[in-house]
Amino acid sequence: MTTLFDPARFGDIALSNRVVMAPLTRNRAPQRMPNALMRSYYEQRAGAGLIVSEGTQISPEGQGYLDTPGIHSDEQVQAWRPTTDAVHARGGRIVLQLWHVGRVSHDSLLPPGTQPVSSTTRAARTKTFTAAGFEPVSTPRALDTAEIPRLVDDYRRAAANALRAGFDGVEVHGANGYLIEQFLRDSINDRHDAYGGAPENRVRLLVQVMTAIAAEIGAGRTGLRLSPITPVNDAALDSDPQGLYGLAVQQLAPLKLAFIHVVEGTTGGPRDNAPFDFEALRLAYKRGNDSGGWIVNNGYTRQMALDAVASGSADAVAFGRPYIANPDLPERLRRDAPWAEVQRATLYGGGAAGYTDYPALAA
Fold first, then answer.
1. Is position 155 annotated as part of the catalytic site?
2. ∠ CA 324-328-329 to the nearest 5 degrees?
3. Out of 65, 178, 245, 285, which one is annotated catalytic?
4. Residue 153 belongs to what H/E stretch?
């Protein structure tokens, strides 16, 4: 029987165990640049079977929060290298999460004279983190159909940059109400071109992005995060989430991606906020790609994680906030040791306090 602590292989990425560190925005990259403090943070957590980095913008227009890192310049590529080298030196594996926030942004975070872009011109009823604190997001403009190839190419180049920076692969952020989900859901997407209307049109951008990245760096180093029923960032549910996301994974299965990472329920909140059959989604994907990893996430306890892997309903389990306060989380899970509590006041922005000063068990 497979356990949470057994090794795994997701495409071309070998994991020493099945405990995954989920992406966590911490806002500690001034001037959008990775730095030595971030290197220490990830190095401390290299015992994970796989680290998924914090969301990292693929282009200047993709930024939505203050002090988040990018992967669109040579300087950023070089600045990420000490982090990937440090994780690898400790035997870890790390992929970069490719992020475009779409309409969940503020004009002050973007290049002068530009505004957020989306599938729609409707502003999201949410806030973002700027130099002035938490502010309502700005009104977006709808991407023109002719701009979509440029957007897809931004994802492709960012994936190539991630491998240049030493990452083992990438995870495309297709969740939490950001750009790709703004195209997926009919609650947001009000387009009348080839990217709007029928579900087959609304999944088109996602499929094109994943296809381009897989062609650039290899499907075995390409993953995806989805959140079929989370309502965060003003992403109201699609009229048929089961059908929509089922169609998406069926169309992606032939690519033979390394993994799909699924948020079950509301990100960081209730797991049962809306009806959805996650097992049916997994089976729909596995029928076309039985070698791809299926990572589950959201509110998993130790016992839930053990059971999910043992039963075969997941190939790995991702933990988010528990990894903030527990840099040695796999060892705590193995020993059934207590989990330290997160200091909420230091989650976003700041320095080492509440970031790299959480002790491991041995300390």
1. no
2. 70
3. 178
4. helix 148-164
The CATH number of 8-346, from 3.20.20.60, 3.20.20.70, 3.10.620.30, 3.40.50.2300, is 3.20.20.70
pTM above 0.90, yes or no: yes
pLDDT in tens, 43-87: 999 999 999 999 999 999 999 999 999 999 999 999 999 999 999
What residue spans define the domains of the chain? Answer: 8-346
What is the rounded average pLDDT for all residues in the chain? 98
Spatial CB neighbours of 96, under 8 Å, sequence gap ≥ 6: 53, 56, 71, 80, 162, 165, 167, 169, 170, 171
Average pLDDT over residues 139-163: 98
Element containing residue 8 per DSSP (H, E): strand 8-10
Strands 169-174 and 222-226: parallel
Report the candidate in 209, 273, 288 with the shortest Cα–Cα distance to residue 235: 273
Query: What angle is formed at CA 89 by the lines to CA 6 and CA 224, rounded to 5 degrees?
Result: 55
Structural tokens at position 358: 């959480």
CA distance 288 to 249: 9
pLDDT at 363 over 70: no
* CA gap 16, 144 in Å, rounded: 44
